[in-house]
Amino acid sequence: MSLxxxxxxxxxxxxxxxxxxRLAEDQSYTITFANLTTQDRVTVNVNGVxxxxxVGINLDGNIIANEDGVGDxxxxxxxxxxxxxxxxxxxxxxxxxTVAGKVLAASPTGTTLVLTQRAYNGEETVFMRTPVTTIxxxxxxxxxxxxxxxxxxxxxxxxxxxxxxxxxxxxxVLFWGQEHVQxxxxxxxxxxxxxxxxxxxxxxxxxxxxxxxxITNYNAAAIADxxxxxxxxxxxxxxxxxxxxxxxxxxxxxxxGGTGDDRVVGSAGSATAPAIGTTSGAELADGGKNVxxxxxxxxxxxxxxxxxxxxxxxxxxxxxxxxxxxSSIVPIRDNETGxxxxxxxxxxxxxxxxxLQFEQE
Length: 361
What we know:
Elements: E1 13-17, E2 20-25, E3 28-34, E4 41-46, E5 49-54, H1 74-91, E6 103-106, E7 112-117, E8 132-136, E9 145-150, E10 154-159, E11 186-188, E12 193-197, E13 202-205, E14 211-215, E15 224-225, E16 238-240, E17 245-247, E18 252-256, E19 263-265, E20 284-286, E21 290-296, E22 302-307, H2 309-313, E23 326-331, E24 334-335, E25 341-342, E26 355-357
Parallel strand pairs: 11-17, 12-18, 13-15, 14-22, 17-19, 18-20, 19-26
Antiparallel strand pairs: 1-2, 2-10, 3-7, 3-9, 4-5, 4-8, 6-7, 13-16, 21-22, 21-23, 24-25
């Protein structure tokens, strides 16, 4: 299957449920209420986390004036309550670091409650299953109602398909453009564990052509020459793609993201701690390194190396760089939008954002 969700696998969220596997992007649910009034109690269930408030009654048991029904209309009561409920969900301690993630809520109309997820490093990390809303009719009047609408940007149900145990992998989930080349991996590990690898970012040489043709120390990966004339990419070197989403399983996984903005979901793994300095029998997660232009004195074009920050700061201690007379080491920044580059221009800055996530479940 080829999913037309985004160019970046790490922008997705996934849920494995009894009826199949769901993939989503930019999740949003709208709950529409009617006939809420004083004394009604509302509970919103997001992934098993419960948010409960009562109309007209504060958490400390005191009456809330604009919801108590004295001189208030049903419309005004409902509007005030939903504003309070939205604030409660957004600022509540109950959903911080839980299976619900960090839920954000808003009540733009006085009849609706809109639920979204807070982004970490520009991406969502928790799949919100369809919220379940229950209303206790404690007012004794006409029963209030709530209906839920899924307004996510994209959502796909792979019916009766369990994507775990490496059933979702680089051969059946494709992120490519007109070249039909895989640009990112969305992949689950095998239940038994083992190696799981992401893709690498591509290095693009700006029109000035001041970079070597290949990455020196990283599988001799080719560096593409950019012929685009649009600002600000016309005269800049940059990296693109390699943004993977890799999910560990119950076995002992060895996950390597490579270069790029990756998200790695950890797992229980081995119960036996490894000896110091070894990885035998242990989970291994490596988000990858950065990409640097290394200008060697006397050479017309800069060499490109994949290094971590320590290596870039200490070139005389790095085997790949020993014996070189280096005049500068400059990070090659990342391009996620086609219009601007992220990351800084010094070794101390971050070029790629990698998220390591362990889920409460």
